[in-house]
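Hi X.,

You mentioned you wanted examples for the new student's onboarding notes, showing what a folding record looks like when two proteins sit in one file. Here is a clean example. The first protein comes first, with its sequence line followed by its C-alpha cells.
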Amino acid sequence: MPGSLRAALATESARVVACEAAGVARQHVAVADRPALLPAHRMHRAVGRAVQDLHALAQRDPAAHGSWRYVWNTYSSFRAVLAYRVAHALHTGGQGNDCSERCTGAARAITETAKVQTGVEIHPAAVIGRRFVLDHAVGTVIGETAMIGDDCYVLQGVLIGARGIADNPDERRHPRLGHRVEVGGLARILGPITIGDDVVIGCGTMVTDDVPARCTVRLVNQYQLTSGQSRARVFGVVPVVDAVEVHGVGLAGAHAELVAPGGDWAVPLPVVAAGNRLLRCAPVPVTGNEVLRLREPGGAELLIVNLHHVWRELRRLQTDAGATR
C-alpha cells in the first residue's frame, strides 16, 4: 500500500474514532465539566490508543479481512475497547476530591453503558497496553486491578478477575498479563498472579498460579458417557510406551475395547494388569478417532471419548521406541 494512502487511511480512522469517543464522553460528562474532568491531552491519548486497537483487530482477525472500516461498522467488541479507553482517561484524570469523584463516577457510567451494549465489562481502572484486541468478547470481564501488556488478544467469555467472590481485599487482587499474551474463550485467570510474555492460555482453562514466559496452558478433556449403573470412575487415560493405562476407581474386573466413533466395529484391548484403581492394557494400532469402552462385570458400560491427544502421544512413543531399537 502506498505511503500516502496509508497515511490517509490512518487520518480517517483517527477522525471517526475521535468523533465516536467524543460522543461517548458527551453522554456522561457535561460540556462545562469537560475541560476539568477530561482534559484534551487525555482524550487525545485515549483516541490514539483506540485507533491502534482498531487497526490491530482489523489486521489480526482473519474475519476482518484487514479492513478497519469493516471492524468499525460491525464489531461491538471494538466498541467495548473504545469505551474503556475513554472511561480510563476519565478515571485517571481530574484534580481535587470533588473532581476525582465525578471522574470516577462518569467513568463507571461509561463502563456500565458499554456492558449493556456490548456484553463486555472492563473496569475503567484496569491498565491495558497498546494494540489490545478483544475478539467476539461477549461475556468477558476484566477487573479493577488487572494489568495487561501490549499486543494481547482476548476472546469471548474470559474472566480476568479475583479468586474470591465477596469481601476481596482492596489491594491488588487481579492478574497481570505480559506482552503478546493470547487468551482463549471461556478461560479464567484469577488472583494476583503474573502471566509472562508470549503466553498462550487455551480455551476453558482456569489459571490461578504464575505462568512463565513463552508457555502454553491447555485444558485436556476426556468426556465420559455411562450406561447402566456404572460404578467405575475414570480420572484419566495415560499412554506409555507399551501400554495404555486407565486410572480411576471401581475398575476391577472391567474389560476394555477400542470402538469406532460410529460404533461400526470394536477391538478388545488385552488387559495385562488390573486392579481397582488401574487398568493396564496392551495397545493396538489406532487411527486417532477411536473411543475407549469399559465393560463392567455387571453389564454397565463407560465410554471415554475425545482421546485424540492420547492416541497421538501413544503413536509418538511407539515410533520413538522403534527408532531406538
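Then the second protein repeats the pattern, sequence line and then C-alpha cells:
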Amino acid sequence: MERTARVETTPPDAPLPAVPPEVARLLDAMPGQPLRRRPGPSAVTEPPAPATGPAAERTPRCTAALRDRLRTARPWRLLPTPAGTPFTFAYAVVLAVTSLVAAYADPAVVQALQQGSSTDVAHLVRHPVLVLVASALWIAGGVLSPYTLGFLLVLTALERRIGGLRTAGVFLCGHVLATLATEVPVGLAVLTGHLPDSSLHRLDYGISFGVATGVGALAGLLTPWLRWPLLAYLAAVLGQDLLSPYDPLTSWGHATALAIGVATWPALRRWADARQGGKGTGTRAGGPHEARAGRPHEARAGRPQGRGALRMTAPPESGDR
C-alpha cells in the first residue's frame, strides 16, 4: 500500500471555518494581515430611477394623442361598409353600376342617358329636380377618375363623424347650389346676348361639386395641422384651374362648392359634438351601433345605474374644443 495523504480542498464558495478566540487575538496583534474574502457576484449597477416632478410631466399632449391614434389605427375604416356607412356604401354601389354601363353599353345609349341627365339650362328649366338627381349618378371620367377615390374617402370620413342623413344633406346641398351658381349666369348671359343659344345645352353632369363640398366640410372637423395644409393645397389647385381657359364654369363651380362646405363648419361641429355625446352616454342619437359605446363593466361591478350613476362616472367637459 502506498501511503498518500489526501488533501481535502475547500470549494471557493464554501463558508469559512470559525476561528478560535486564541488565534483571533494573535491575528489582531499582527498588522497588515490580509483577510480571506468569499468571492461574490460582481456589483450590478442599477438603472437610474425615472425622473419625477414637473419636468416629467411636460410631455406634449398632442404627441401622446398621436401615439394613441397610431396604436389603435384601423385602416379599413377609410372605406365604406354596409353597417358603418350605409349611405356612402349604397351610393358607391350605384356609381359603380352607372360606371359599368358607361364603359360597356352602346355609346349612343350612354350619350343619350348622359345628355338626358345633364344639368344644363334647358333641362333645369323643364325638369329641375329630375336632372339634379340624375346628374349625380354619373362619374365624369369613369370609375378610374380621381373623383372616385375622393368620393370614397371624403364621404366615408364625413359619415362616420356626422351620420348618413347629414352627409347626404351636405353632399346634395353642395351639388345643387354649385350647379345653380354656374348655370344661372349662363342663362342670364344668353338672355342678354353675351352667349350663343348653344350654351343652353352644355353637357354638365358628375359628382365633383358634391365631393368638393364634402372636402370643405370635412376640413372643419379635422385637427388644425391637417385642416390648413389641406385647404391651402385645394386653394392652389383651384386657383390654377381658374387661371386656365379650359372649362372656366366648372372651375368656378368647384370653388363655389368648396366655399359651401366651409360655410357648414358651425353646423357640422355641433352635429359631431352631439354624435360624440350620444356615444358617451350610450344613446342612439348618432346611429344603431353607438349604444354599445357605454361602460358595461360598471354594471358588472355592481355600481348604481341611472342618471345619478352617469353623473358620477361621466368625464368632465372641457372648456374648448
